[in-house]
Amino acid sequence: MTWSLSVALAERAYPIHIGTGLIGDRDLYQPHLSSSQVMIVTNETVGPLYRDAVLGALEGYQVAEVVLPDGEQFKTLEVWNRIFDALLQARFGRDCTLIALGGGVVGDMAGFAAACYQRGVGFIQVPTTLLAQVDSSVGGKTGINHPAGKNMIGAFHQPRAVIADTATLATLPQRELSAGLAEVIKYGLIRDDAFLSWLEAHMAELLARDPDAIAYVIRRSCEIKAEIVAADEHEAGQRALLNLGHTFGHAIETASGYGAWLHGEAVGVGMCLAADLSMRLGWMTDTDLARVRRLVTSAGLPTAAPADLTPEQFMEHMSVDKKIQDGRLRLVLMRYPGEALVTADIDPDLLYATLAVASE
Ligand SMILES: NC(=O)c1ccc[n+]([C@@H]2O[C@H](COP(=O)([O-])OP(=O)(O)OC[C@H]3O[C@@H](n4cnc5c(N)ncnc54)[C@H](O)[C@@H]3O)[C@@H](O)[C@H]2O)c1
Ligand SMILES: O=C(O)C(=O)C[C@@H](O)[C@H](O)[C@H](O)COP(=O)(O)O
Ligand SMILES: [Zn+2]
Fold first, then answer.
1. What does the record give as its pathway (predicted)?
2. Looking at the structure, do residues 195 and 254 belong to the same domain, yes or no?
3. Residue 253 among the catalytic residues
4. DSSP 3-state of 44
5. ipTM of the complex
């Protein structure tokens, strides 16, 4: 069974295909290739597993490949530049197409390279992690990290298509599966209490990789993300809700120097901290907070920040958050599980109180 949905962005609308065995389906790629020149951007883990399937779909095309080192710590300017070296070495022109084959790190870097190469070329997302299939391959946020902050250098550049082959998840390590579930939980918390209840009831099936359960959460997550992106492509408003847990989570990732914490793990902790602060503000109840923490735990994710990250260090890292306006920190918090909001109206003492218990 294949589901296809569309990200409704007028002349830049694009399909998201979700199903098993899609990675080798020539018909899904062909309409989105601008010429015979195709560059596969992958990493040293995913390339050996799935490049042949992609190559099978591209017979007759002039295909080149660039293989990046694997890990969040390599989402850097220096490593990103290797994509341009490869494109120039292959003498690829403005009508080439990039294929991002891998998780969110490869997708963000390849997408940003596509945004910049010769001032912009097309790219196709072929996400191979749960996190990338439910979140990072959709919506056109691309970029790289800076030592001082996550995703600090980047561009909005939408893919031409997303081809999410759920069969690729068979080789994904369990820790990475859990990391992907953090972003899935996020969608429930920001706008779908029924989905949240469904996740509570089916977490064991998801962790056991039941194919129907996995396909359902990818589809529902992509539906929610596609709807939000279509309404607010450049994050002028409601798209910021997709950042629930990320101001705290990005601080954890940056403080740890990238890589020790998976993005999804940091976001899981971040959502617990957002729930804690929402409770201190009198919005959520302690029952709601316990529910959020229980769900995050049930997905195999941590709920506590590193013990050596002080509130002052947290604040320092959070002070470069991209949602800051007029020098004021804005956070995504929750009125209750299933309804999030963005607010700058944050009592510093309550925020400090949340950060002071972050590692508990
Ligand atoms: N652009 C966005 O909207 C967006 C959204 C969420 C996250 N992100 C970014 O995505 C990144 C996290 O993505 P991620 O969680 O996919 O991490 P990742 O890209 O590092 O992939 C996780 C690990 O799984 C391996 N892997 C990938 N697919 C595999 C497979 N099928 N089988 C076996 N191993 C496989 C990778 O090599 C890597 O070691 C972060 O940099 C985050 O900032 C971006
Ligand atoms: O697509 C979005 O918008 C998101 O915020 C999705 C997030 O899960 C993702 O981690 C994103 O890269 C964070 O964006 P940033 O602007 O805070 O770097
Ligand atoms: Zn994220």
1. Metabolic intermediate biosynthesis; chorismate biosynthesis; chorismate from D-erythrose 4-phosphate and phosphoenolpyruvate: step 2/7
2. yes
3. no
4. coil
5. 0.99
Spell 301-313 as b/e; 16+ CB within 10 A means b. bbbebbeebeeee
Residue nearest to atom 15 of ligand 2 (CA): 151
Q: Let me know whether 59 and 198 are in one domain.
A: no
194 and 231 share one domain: yes
Instruction: Name the DSSP letter for residue 149.
Output: E
Q: Which domain holds residue 48?
A: 3-171
Q: For 263, what's the count of Cα atoms within 13 Å in the CB-facing half-sphere?
A: 24
Where is the domain boundary, 171, 188, 215? 171
Domain identity same for 264 and 124: no
Q: By three-state DSSP, how is residue 208 classified? A: coil
The finding on whether 183 has its CB within 6 A of some atom of ligand 2 is: yes
d(CA 198, CA 193): 9
Starting from the CA of residue 179, give the closest ligand.
1
Question: What does the pLDDT look like over 300-358, one tens digit per residue?
Answer: 999 999 999 999 999 999 999 999 999 999 999 999 999 999 999 999 999 999 999 99
The number of folded domains in the chain is 2
Residue type for 56, please?
G
